[in-house]
Design a protein that fits this description.
six-stranded mixed beta sheet, about 30% strand, 12 strands, alpha+beta, Deoxyribonuclease I, Chain A
Length: about 250
């Protein structure tokens, strides 16, 4: 199976340093580039951080639904802020979401809100062979550490082999992940700690794919495409008790 993780920056394609306000521009011209990239990579599971669920940027179209229709995938998504949070009451922010797309049917999905942090959503998706968690953690370090504690509780209650991925915003370094990985027993697919941000001059490892020890890693890659301010992560793996097959040529 192949998992692709990407923080797509709401599809705006704005890459200049210190230009956060430019993410408030329209994304309709750039978003097809992301669709073509995802189709080319041909993943079985897609975790997308910073998806626009229908603001003026997309002419009020939901990017998760558009991608699912274009790629013929199952999907689930939700705005990343809790129902009673400030983000739900502010225009544009109230359309900022995360999404999971899957080639195979989604057996169950759940949305968990951490107790701490402005953005606090964890999406849980159960597939036939694995359970996938997608997160986008807070910018503040103390809030992130509390969220990692909450995420530990979530993944420990899972019966199937676990995949945990997302933008963890480890702004002070990858050491922030060590206790979480040690406590859960999960392994980082990025064993060389290659940086993922910013895409034009990567120097920080903010994005992670973590997997259960029962999952066999086959290939990990960070495609050097500048479709967002984050680089995407690709992880080929075998779920437990799956006969080994060589990766297909051409898209790897």
């Amino acid at each position: 199976m192949r998992l692709l993780l990407h923080n797509i920056q709401y599809g705006t394609g704005r890459l200049r340093r210190f230009a956060w306000l430019e993410t408030l521009t329209r994304s309709t011209r750039h978003f097809p580039n992301i669709t073509r990239f995802l189709r080319h990579m041909d993943p079985d599971i897609i975790g997308l951080v910073e998806v626009d669920a229908g603001s003026f940027r997309t002419e009020h179209k939901n990017q998760a639904e558009e991608l699912a229709n274009d790629l013929d995938y199952y999907h689930c998504h939700r705005v990343k802020y809790p129902d009673n949070g400030l983000g739900r009451r502010v225009p544009v922010l109230n359309k900022q979401a995360n999404a999971v797309l899957s080639r195979e049917p989604i057996l169950r999905s759940a949305f968990h809100d951490f107790d701490t942090g402005f953005k606090s959503l964890a999406i849980e998706v159960e597939l036939e062979q694995v359970t996938f968690f997608l997160v986008h953690l807070a910018l503040g370090m103390r809030a992130r550490q509390r969220q990692l504690g909450d995420l530990y509780d979530l993944v420990q209650g899972c019966d199937k082999p676990r995949l945990v991925a997302g933008d963890f915003n480890t702004l002070t370094g990858v050491w922030e992940m060590r206790m979480f990985l040690r406590a859960t027993g999960l392994k980082s697919a990025n064993t060389r700690h290659a940086p993922t941000f910013p895409s034009w001059a990567p120097c920080r490892e903010l994005d992670f794919i973590c997997h259960d020890p029962s999952i066999t890693p086959i290939r990990f890659k960070i495609p050097r495409v500048r479709l967002s301010d984050h680089l995407p992560l690709m992880f080929d793996f075998e779920p437990p008790d799956t006969p080994r097959q060589p990766p297909q040529d051409g898209t790897h």
